[in-house]
Amino acid sequence: MYITCLDLEGVLVPEIWIAFAEASGIPELRKTTRDEPDYDKLMKYRLAILKEHGLGLKEIQETIAKIDPMPGAKEFLDKLRDLSQVIIISDTFTQFAKPLMKKLGMPTIFCNTLEVAENGDITGYKMRVEKSKYTTVKALQSIGFETIASGDSHNDLGMIKASKAGFLFKSPDNIKAENPDIPAYETYDELYEAIKNAMD
User: Which of 18, 89, 176, 197 has the most CB atoms within 10 Å of its CB?
Assistant: First the structure.
């Protein structure tokens, strides 16, 4: 019994923080897990910038409302869900992910939660579990599932390496170069075939 575990941003939808950096004109917010492997450090950096500029959840959600899945992402996901159960495991937050899940046909997503003040300021965040991608994959394996995983960033490597098969998808060159043992793909058709072959 297989479960395919996919990252969200950079794999199925564009990077939310990059889109918001462009919308807000704050280039410092372009930094993602591709650049900073320490997620806690990255989030504290982001929250400090939001506070400095007086920006909150409302402004980010307005940007997210305009984000569409990557071309072909929903079709890939629909086809993949015919083949196996799929869980999206993301370090994003429920307050960001919900409108994007509607556009992807409401797949299952495991992610985190933002702490938001009454005035809409983002005051902190709550991780579901530590090392959530790796921990989730190990938990699925502990209840009898084989996992296949794919993602694009530093924070995906744990679940990719812990799975029966794992693939990089649309990863930057530095991550591909640092992990030459992990097959890397650029198109949904290639990734679908790789996942299908891993199950055969």
Answer: 89
Q: Is 69 helix (H, G, I), strand (E, B) or coil?
A: coil
Q: Which residues are catalytic?
A: 7, 9
Cβ distance 113 to 92 under 8 Å?
A: no
With CA atoms as reference, report the closest residue to 164 among 183, 185, 187, 148: 148
Token pair of 36, please? 């900073």
* Rounded-to-integer distance, Cα 74 and Cα 96, Å: 18
What contacts 137, CB < 8 A, 6 or more positions away?
Answer: 5, 89, 147, 149, 158, 159, 162, 163
Distance CA 194, CA 148 (A): 10
pLDDT in tens, 108-141: 999 999 999 999 999 999 998 888 899 999 999 9
Helical spans, DSSP H, in 85-152: 94-103, 132-142
The answer to whether the predicted template modeling score (pTM) of the entire model surpasses 0.85 is yes
With H, G, I as helix, E, B as strand and everything else as coil, classify residue 19.
Answer: helix
Q: What is the pLDDT of residues 41-90, one digit of tens each?
A: 999 999 999 999 999 999 999 999 999 999 999 999 999 999 999 999 99
Question: Mapping DSSP to helix (H, G, I), strand (E, B) and coil, where does residue 185 land?
Answer: strand
